Amino acid sequence: MSSPRQPTQRDREVGQQISRLRKAAGLTQEGLAGRLGVSQQQVGKYERGENRLSHTRVEEIHRLLTDAGGDVGFAEPPAVFRTTLSDAMKGEISQSITRIEDELRRLKQLLAVG
Q: For 73, which DSSP code?
């Protein structure tokens, strides 16, 4: 039986950045939680790095926080978000390419049979 993935130092860094952005946007944890559709406790766990975040959730939080009170001073996403999104996007693109290749092989087999 494998153990669940534990949060890493990177998760804690992302959480700290979320906390800074939230405060810069003038939002409480409860306010951010309401916009995300999660509990205030969950936002606290995100900020403490206790719970891992998918890249989609990180992207959503970044969008909400930079749009919440207008621009909070970032011309582009902070480096911690850029790196997280970039790594996650590479993984998704790789998975998508694999699925497309698998589907093409399947379609070629179907055409060869008919």
A: S
pTM score, two decimals? Answer: 0.56
The answer to whether 18 touches 61, Cβ cutoff 8 Å, is yes
Dist. CA 80–CA 94, nearest whole Å: 22
**Cα 85 from chain centroid (whole Å):** 7
Q: Domains plus CATH for the chain?
A: 9-113 (1.10.260.40)
Question: Along the 114 residues of the chain, how does pLDDT read in single tens digits?
Answer: 445 677 788 888 888 888 988 888 888 999 899 989 999 999 999 999 998 888 888 888 888 887 654 444 444 555 555 555 566 666 777 777 788 888 888 888 888 775
Do residues 53 and 9 touch, judged by C-beta distance below 8 A?
no
Cβ-proximal residues to 51 (8 Å cutoff; 6+ apart), any chain? 7, 11, 42, 45
d(C-alpha 59, C-alpha 84), whole Å: 9
Tokens representing residue 111 in the block: 């055409």
